[in-house]
Amino acid sequence: MKHKIAHFSFASGILNVGVVALALLFAASLAPAVRAQTTEPEMYAIGIHPHAIVLLDGNRDEIVGEIQITGRSPKDMVFSPDGKYLFVTSEGRSRLEMVNVAQRKAEKVFDLTPAGHRMTIFGLAINAKGDLLYIHVKLVKLLADEFKVEPPQIWSVDVKTGKINKIVEVPEGVMTLAMTTDDRQLIAWGRDIYYVDPAKGRITGTYPLMSRNLPDKGPVDALAAFVQFERSGILSLPYYTKDPITKKDIFGFANMDLTTGKMDLMELGPPVPLYSVIVAPDRKHAYGLMLQLVEVNMTERKVERMVNLERTKYVANISRDGKKVYVSGASPFIHIYDTASMKLIKTLNLSGDPGVTTFRALPPLAH
Amino acid sequence: MKHVRPLNKKARNFEKQLEGQPPAADPKESVSAMQGANLGCSLVFDPGWETDATGGVTGLCQPVEADLYGCSDDCWWPAQVPDQITNFPDWADKCAAAERDWKNLDLLNPNKP
């Protein structure tokens, strides 16, 4: 363009200057539209107190929306595959809401609690088509003289009609759900990992964690509260265990590959307290956080770098290109770190604290 | 106590405990630990709020106010902070950010109706 303008300026006098000015104005008005077509949308959502969801634009690293929902303390969240809706549990995990992202409002509350019961939802997943949600529910029947705890269950919820279908009962302790990318298995992560076939309505396999009791390997303790795996397809959690022979405490990353359903316990050495992990899109690095941001080389299976965080953080997500890690939770900020230098590059203020909430990214193909 | 008799399983277990006998060993009756499974609240007095596992404070969340909702959400530390699942859902409605708005937190007396 610069070359053409120069050519126009030399060609003749004032008339061509006016044409050049018009051309520049036209180019300026065109540039943002061109930029929008070539830059993929990069949106993130995190819940904050007392009852809102914050939207972060990862292209500009700015807060672009704060959506008030009907219930308190947003917890589990999943985007619909097309990115148009965000499903979130709230109000002490008793409520499931559907939020319209573009209109910035809670559009629907699913009425799920059976009469005479109290219900809490621990774990939320959505299928690839986006028409079925899966929730893990804990029901308590409110009898006249006692609260009767019913077996935990996994339900499907039809997004359009709200119809509930009981899939299977699961053992106590499940905290999170995730769907494998082929939609064939629902991963229920609790004290152990349960593979659920939603079509057949049964548990088809178990990967022992807390029930692991081998002569050379102790139980695996992992906190499945903060899960995000959209970028890499790997649901990774920090885990802690004790070597039964040496009696040494050990930590590592428990990595569930949602494209294959395979688990990998990656032992990393003496414990570093961590709340959550985010795996980079290229799966070569992962970042754990709590009081430090810990970079792990997934290929060499070792801790590479560690930096102190500004304050405790619960949860993180990562940009599509893997160059920025967004850390949040536990105080009203989102801190953005450059993964190459592990330095803090930007701080965004929030109007409320993110408590025990997930930090989700818009699905890759969503617009 | 001789004029009082248990009417349900929970009361019978309670009476057994008073008599020094172990309660019914049914795994389904046990209160779940802190792996996110709770009926409302469980009573846990583990260190982790006042002190870390070594008895110090360096392993705690920093600053301590930042961890307030991490501890009250889902009833993680019900002995130390009010729980939001069962008993005190709106106790922090006026305190969006604990570090900044802690003066707006309600004081709670569990014994008052």
Task: Itemize the secondary structure elements and their pairings.
The complex is a heterodimer of chains A (367) and B (113).
Chain A: H1 2-11, H2 14-38, E1 43-48, E2 52-57, E3 62-68, E4 77-79, E5 85-90, E6 95-100, E7 105-110, E8 117-126, E9 132-142, E10 147-149, E11 153-158, E12 164-169, E13 176-179, E14 186-189, E15 193-197, E16 202-207, E17 221-222, E18 234-242, E19 249-257, E20 262-269, E21 274-279, E22 285-290, E23 292-297, E24 302-308, E25 315-318, E26 324-328, E27 333-338, E28 343-349, E29 359-361
Antiparallel strand pairs in A: 1-2, 1-29, 2-3, 4-5, 5-6, 6-7, 8-9, 9-10, 9-11, 11-12, 13-14, 14-15, 15-16, 17-18, 18-19, 19-20, 21-22, 22-23, 23-24, 25-26, 26-27, 27-28
Helix pairs in contact in A: 1-2
Chain B: H1 9-18, H2 68-72, H3 98-101
Shape of chain A: globular
CATH 4th-level superfamily of chain B: Quinohemoprotein amine dehydrogenase, gamma subunit structural domain
Report the β-strand fraction of chain A as a percent range.
over 45%
Report low-confidence residues of chain B grouped into runs of 5 or more.
26-47
Percent helix range of chain B: 10-25%
Mean pLDDT of chain A, nearest integer?
A: 89
Shape of chain B: elongated
Domain module count of chain B:
1
Q: Report the CATH C-level class of chain B.
A: Few Secondary Structures
Major beta sheet summary of chain B: none
Q: What is the end-to-end distance of chain B?
A: 27 Å
**Could you say which structural class the secondary elements and strand pairing of chain A correspond to?**
mainly beta
Total individual domains of chain A: 1
Ranges of chain A where pLDDT stays below 50 over 5 or more residues in a row are 1-38
Major sheet size, sense and barrel closure of chain A = 5 strands, antiparallel
Number of helices of chain B: 3
Write down the CATH topology of chain B.
Answer: Quinohemoprotein amine dehydrogenase
Give the rounded overall mean pLDDT of chain B: 68
SSE string of chain B, helix = H, strand = E? Answer: HHH
Estimate the strand proportion of chain B.
under 5%
How many strands appear in the DSSP assignment of chain B? 0
